[in-house]
Amino acid sequence: MAEEKTNYTQGYSKATVASHTSRTVDSDASFLVPYIKPTDYILDVGCGPGTITLGFRALAPQGSVIGVDISEQVLDQARKGVSEAIKKADEISQPLSRITFQKVDLLAGLPFADDSFDVVYSSQLFPHLATLDMRVRALSEMRRVLKPGGVLASRDAAELHFYPRAYDLDRLWAGNMTKALRNGEPDACFPGGDMPALFRKVGFAEGQVKVGAGTTVYSGGETRQWFVAANLGRLQAGDTFRESWRRVGITDETVEQTRKMLAKWAEDDNAWYAALQAEILGWK
């Protein structure tokens, strides 16, 4: 199947989607879980393959969950994943009416009325919005559909680091990926650190915002090999992710150097990766 064209610069190749399916409620939304009620109506924005969305369904069995994404291609994978999960749980007779997926362009507006959801959530959405204006528009729209008293939660990378530093992957991988995400912006950085200010900019008062942080850590031989295999796939010729690097002037030589260093890093028993994740909660 040809890859669907959207304004999502990383694309939807098997390698990219595989890196997203590792995200679950436990890994990426545990900071939100204590605030979810069984009757909540939940919106998962930029849901991708739906692995987090599916977890929300179990937490709100008397409510409903909607996952939205800009790609019908990845939403088809989400629907398939939900169907398979329900079969494995021997719930074949239970209808799927409480979890649905819709194709939506967030920047064009969410197709929901004001004050529709008890919980609105996104994971790693804001790194893919290249400008401050886009990020403001997106978060404002998410706040619009949140009910008074509801909670909006976001989890976005603030820093990525590879150890040992001798492999230079902070520059080769993290630096170049950020440059591509921000369309070549000089000194670009991940948006996680700026999210508290963004929440306040769109209308959340300081006392309505809770700032926290989590980590994503990859260590151990098997985990390193998985991480590197997925990302080498994204950097292969023709992948949309690699093309996003080329569009901002990152040379093929640099891409190949990055691939080489990733492969070497994976074989180092002392190597590990850590990402600092900004975990923000805002109440309307």
TrEMBL record:
Source organism, top-level taxon:
Eukaryota
* InterPro entries on file: Methyltransf_25, SAM-dependent_MTases_sf
* Entry annotated with the keyword Ligase: no
- Give the keywords, sorted: Methyltransferase, Transferase
Which one GO biological process term can you cite for this protein? methylation
Q: Which GO terms describe its molecular function?
A: methyltransferase activity
**Matching Pfam families:** Methyltransf_25
Residue ranges occupied by any Methyltransferase domain in the UniProt entry: 42-150
Q: Which family does it belong to?
A: Belongs to the methyltransferase superfamily. LaeA methyltransferase family.
Xref: PANTHER family: 2-METHOXY-6-POLYPRENYL-1,4-BENZOQUINOL METHYLASE, MITOCHONDRIAL, METHYLTRANSFERASE
Protein name (database record): Methyltransferase
Its organism's taxonomic lineage begins at: Eukaryota, Fungi, Dikarya, Ascomycota, Pezizomycotina
